Amino acid sequence: MAEPVEVITAPVLSGLAHGFLGRRGGVSTGETAGLNVGLGSGDAPALVARNRALARDAVLPGARLVTVYQVHSAQCVVAQDWDDAARPHADALVTNRPGVLLGILTADCAPVLFADTEAGVVSAAHAGWKGALGGVTDATIAAMESLGARRERIVAAVGPCIAQASYEVDQAFRDRFIGDDPANSAHFVAGKPGHYQFDLEGYVLARLRAAGIGRAQGAALDTYDAPAQFYSYRRSTHRGEASYGRQISLIGLG
Fold it and tell me: Is the pTM of this model over 0.90?
């Protein structure tokens, strides 16, 4: 019997169709075994399409799944009915349309799901270190407001991502963050000489709270350290694997 799709939900998004999905429950095999939804992963397109359908049906059956071509930017777009081949280059998307399921792909970066239930507006953002530092969450909040959301009502959940214990960075990396705001030193602890451990989830949560999102919570799940549950770019690189899968985080209005 096939393993069921695992859907991790966030208490702060209770009542909404949403979920942070890992690799459990898919049909891909080999290095990308499981629920690999990455169109650019090198996996067989038919398997990826099947995995995307399984992911959609686990969260909002029959919905229109919409994703973007992620480029580690701070760009947020309003979801439209584009084909996968015509996905805009962006790292967040927003909608107020029922029956649309927003998807963000990750493999160590932080997925962030947002909602203002009173306004009927939801959003999903891909926050890798570059997009997070560049302000992708701020752009997402602004895009939600353009559709009628109010930031004091918006709630947000940060999903599984690489944890501080697994995320070693060098001095130059830390300097970028300190140069942007000296308070960012709080998200680094010293590691081996000349290196630090970076708390991506903590940094994203701090950005959300600084932007006025009062209810923001993290999953506290490490993608790097859970190979049976999540894909991880960094883990695959350390193992010398030729390919790596992508997991998806989803939110929509039923």
Answer: yes
